[in-house]
């Protein structure tokens, strides 16, 4: 008896339910692995440096923060 049939029976599920569940889990793992961001060593160091010493906000960003603060205060 194939392992999948035995496992499905042990879990009290139909073979179809077992296969659909296994495929969904495999698809989820594939999606998660594809979404992982991989950076070179130099890129990792650049990213860490930007977090530790962020650049000053641009004038446009400063204006956006000011507008946001006004909107939040008026609510």
Please describe what this structure looks like.
- With 75 residues, the protein is mainly alpha-helical.
- The chain folds into two domains: 3-35; 41-74, no CATH class.
- It is 76% helix and 0% strand.
- It has helices at residues 3-10, 15-35, 41-52, 59-74.
- The longest helix has 21 residues, at 15-35.
- It is elongated, with a radius of gyration of 25 Å.
- The mean pLDDT is 89.
Summary?
The mean pLDDT is 89. The longest helix is centred in the middle third of the chain and has 21 residues, at 15-35.
The helicity comes to over 70%
Number of strands: 0
Share of residues in strands: under 5%
Radius of gyration: 25 Å
Query: H/E order of the elements?
Result: HHHH
Residue windows where pLDDT falls under 50 for at least 5 positions: none
Architecture blueprint of SSEs:
Elements: H1 3-10, H2 15-35, H3 41-52, H4 59-74
Could you list some keywords that capture this structure?
mainly alpha; 76% helix; 75 residues; 2 domains; elongated; single chain; 4 helices
